[in-house]
Write a structure and sequence with these properties.
single chain, alpha/beta, Rossmann fold, 3 domains, 8-stranded mixed β-sheet, globular
Length: 676
């Protein structure tokens, strides 16, 4: 195999007011031409730092202390600025995590793609445009001739990511780097992006580096895997060796933490106890020692060497693989118990009057002002975001609300809390209809209802400390209480150290910011919490910690949860009931276990079968669902899912289905349910 990229002894430091952070230490790996290589690890492990070092895009306080990175005929770390600028975008290209911030909002895709092709001086403007259109078509964007004239805000999240991939492939690069390419995408769009990257790689033989903490994505996509932790490579090898025979305890723990691997429903998810160590101090021994179940005295004092696990390329950096050290830990390993998998008996308080009873809620958003609509002769200038949505939650119960991006999940959650006005319908909370309450009557009820927002850092004021954020609910409701004691109590509840009270949101990791959001939501001991994507963007181990914490607090205080998510493996383990949403309608609802075992609606079946498995032998050959979710302004006739449904019949195209009740109590909006 021909080596495309050869990294040797790469070390990177960042200068901070508290001293140097040793972000990368002696990184060594090779990437062969035509391979897809995954770099995996928790947040803070140094995955993205490798990318920024290779492309000379490190922050100003970052310095490459040592090492080389030979790419084709140049050393990326030592070459001059003009050379690296000619390499970036042409020979090395990048797909960024957030396409909305990496694409210009004021330029059409045509202009952005022409700008990328400025190096192709031999092409005319018309030829550049045609090349861009061809690439848009290649990545599956429908009607590329007209869509190329549009702006990023006119594309959905999945379409923007496709456009980002198209732009990255325009110059036919030798190396494509994809940084968390599917983080914000739902399961169906993620599957489409995975298939797209795989097909493009086969067509162009481009070498690809995929940076991710999504183990299912890496198993689906990659040939080789590099496991990183706290600035070091702990294990590397081909994807099957890593997933079927992991050599390092950290790799094993990461795989165990993935909820998609758990076959049986379990409210307690496996976690990796502890946090990534402070990298201001270089570790003397194994960098994973503080979180390892099998550590011995030697692990604290001596750095492990690279040992061969299996095959020629599968290596891991762990004392456990040293034959002279195995006896000391054999008994400890055999006696260790797998974390998680304990399903507790629960009490859910049921009564004749449901705790939360949402009935036929409708929400509309205006498309234009009344004057403009009158001038254009449009009688109904509105779009239906939520249509006839009904659901019931008991005290101490968890209902999972699932659907693709744009299906109306968040709008429904906000409508229940009175943050969005409803056109019709009711939402009775302990008998009180929230939809008919005036704003001034809502304030007392807000003590009993709370919301956890999707962006854990963005939802916290950057000007307030953690202490100020935690005590704010008590100040708003004029509750006479010792605020310092309450701030400390809430920190203890969500297992945050008290010294975090003086920190600001930007000083917190995603998991820590999420814990602050949980603590803030719990401040007034609410009876109902609506959690919008509570695990979005978090590592699998941190996901487990947050969800286990929410479950423990639910068991202790009898809190009811409405959890909005597109993370189906997580929803499966924590939900008692499930509601599936499509184009603002609830198409299936009922017992969570029954829905996952035997989906009744074709859309639900597509979502469940589309879950990526952290198993290289279970790669999906075909997509469970294709196409984009239709526009709310142009709803399909009949059953609104018929144009994406593989079971569609003529009746589905003509008639709107009515809600049917199944024998197990489920309700499904389909002419021909898959389960009678």
């Amino acid at each position: 195999m021909t080596t495309l990229l050869d990294i040797k002894n790469l070390s990177v430091d960042f200068r901070t007011p508290l001293g140097r952070v040793h972000a990368l230490r002696n990184i060594n790996f090779k990437i062969n031409k035509g391979k897809i290589v995954g770099i995996v690890g928790e947040s803070g492990s140094g995955k993205s730092t490798i990318i920024w070092a290779l492309t000379q895009l490190l922050a100003k306080n970052g310095t490459v202390e040592s090492g080389s990175a030979k790419f084709e005929d140049i050393d990326l770390l030592k070459t001059d600025k003009s050379t690296i600028m000619s390499v970036r975008g042409e020979r090395i290209s990048m797909v960024f995590q957030d396409p909305m911030t990496s694409q210009s909002p004021v330029l059409t895709y045509e202009q952005q793609m022409k700008d990328i092709l400025y190096r192709k001086s031999n092409l005319s403007n018309a030829e550049k445009k045609q090349k861009a259109i061809n690439m848009m078509a290649r990545v599956g964007i429908p009607d590329p001739e007209s869509r190329i004239k549009q702006y990023p805000h006119q594309f959905s999240g999945g379409m923007r990511q496709r456009a980002g991939i198209a732009m990255s492939m325009l110059m036919e690069p030798s190396l494509l780097i994809a940084d968390e390419p599917t983080t914000a995408l739902d399961v169906t769009m993620e599957a489409q992006i995975i298939h797209l990257i795989r097909e493009l790689q086969k067509e162009t033989e481009t070498t690809i580096i995929v940076v991710s903490h999504n183990l299912g994505l890496i198993a689906e996509l990659c040939d080789e895997v590099i496991i990183m932790y706290a600035g070091e490579i702990l294990e590397k090898g081909n994807v099957e060796e890593i997933y079927y025979n992991p050599g390092h305890p950290y790799t094993k723990a990461l795989l165990e933490c993935d909820p998609a691997r758990e076959i049986e429903d379990s409210r307690t998810l496996p976690v990796i106890a502890g946090d990534i160590p402070d990298l201001h101090i270089k570790p003397k021994g194994c960098v994973f020692v503080s979180r390892c179940d099998f550590s011995e005295k030697k692990c604290h004092t001596t750095k492990p060497l690279d040992y061969r696990v299996s095959g020629e390329t599968h290596m891991a950096k762990c004392h456990l693989l040293d034959p002279t050290f195995l006896k000391a830990v054999a008994e400890k390993e055999s006696n260790s118990q797998k974390k998680g998998n304990t399903k507790k008996e629960r009490f859910i308080e049921k009564s004749d009057e449901h705790f939360l009873d949402v009935s036929n809620i409708n929400v509309q958003f205006p498309l234009m002002g009344k004057v403009k609509a009158t001038l254009k002769g449009i009688k109904n200038p509105y779009v239906d975001a939520v249509l006839d949505a009904s659901l019931k939650i008991e005290r101490g119960e968890t209902l999972g609300l699932v659907g693709e991006s744009g299906s109306g999940k968040t709008t429904l959650g906000r409508a229940i809390l009175g943050l969005v006005k409803t056109r019709s319908g009711s939402a009775k909370f302990e008998g009180v209809d929230l939809c008919k309450l005036p704003n001034n009557a809502f304030k007392p009820l807000r003590r009993d209802m709370a919301m956890m927002f999707q962006d854990p850092v963005g939802s916290l004021s950057p000007r307030q400390t953690v202490r100020s954020l935690l005590i704010e609910p008590f100040k708003i409701h004029n509750i006479p209480i010792n605020l310092d004691d309450e701030a400390k109590r809430l920190c203890d509840t969500v297992r945050l150290p008290e010294n975090f009270l003086s920190r600001y949101p930007h000083e917190l990791s995603g998991g820590q910011a999420r814990r602050v959001g949980v603590a803030r939501a719990l401040a007034l001991n609410p009876k109902l919490i609506i959690a919008d994507e509570p695990t979005a963007g978090l590592d699998v181990s941190v996901q487990g910690e947050i969800l286990n914490l929410m479950n423990e607090l639910q068991d202790e205080h009898g809190i009811a949860y409405l959890i909005i998510s597109h993370n189906l493996p997580v929803i499966r383990h924590i939900s008692d009931k499930l509601a599936i949403m499509y184009l603002g309608r609830l198409v299936e609802s009922g017992n969570s276990t029954n829905i996952f075992k035997r989906p009744a609606h074709p859309y639900t079946e597509a979502l469940v079968t589309g879950i990526p498995q952290p198993d290289p032998k279970k790669r999906r050959k075909i997509l469970s669902i294709e196409g984009e979710i239709p526009s709310l302004t142009d709803r399909p006739s009949g059953c609104e899912f018929h144009n994406r449904c593989k079971y569609s019949q003529d009746r589905c195209k003509r008639e709107t289905p009515n809600l049917q009740s199944l024998s197990d109590g489920r309700q499904v909006l389909c002419h021909f349910p898959l389960t009678a």
